[in-house]
Design goal:
Structural class: alpha+beta
Shape: globular
Order of helices and strands: EHEHEEH
Strand content: 15-25%
Number of domains: 1
Helix content: 25-40%
CATH superfamily: Glutaredoxin
Number of helices: 3
Radius of gyration: 11 Å
């Protein structure tokens, strides 16, 4: 099973879309709200080099934004 972390903010529509996608495909994930969690925000910036959300970490591979095709590829979803 993939180790999935998604860095989000409460108002991000792409974050919500990514989380819905994970639920539809029964993908467990850990959510980090970077609006509230300063340490998570710093980690996200170190991983991605950006302040944009969502940042999705799948087994150490970083995706900035919700790229459905890339997420599917990394998770082995057809």
């Amino acid at each position: 099973m993939a180790n999935v972390i998604i860095y989000t903010t409460p108002t991000c529509v792409y974050c919500k879309a990514a989380k819905e996608f994970f639920k539809e495909h029964n993908v467990s994930y850990e959510e980090k709200d970077v609006a509230k969690d300063e340490q998570a925000r710093e980690t996200m910036v170190k991983k991605s080099g950006m302040m944009a959300v969502p940042v999705i970490d799948i087994n150490g591979k970083i995706i900035i934004g919700f790229d459905r095709a890339k997420v599917s590829q990394l998770l082995g979803i057809k």
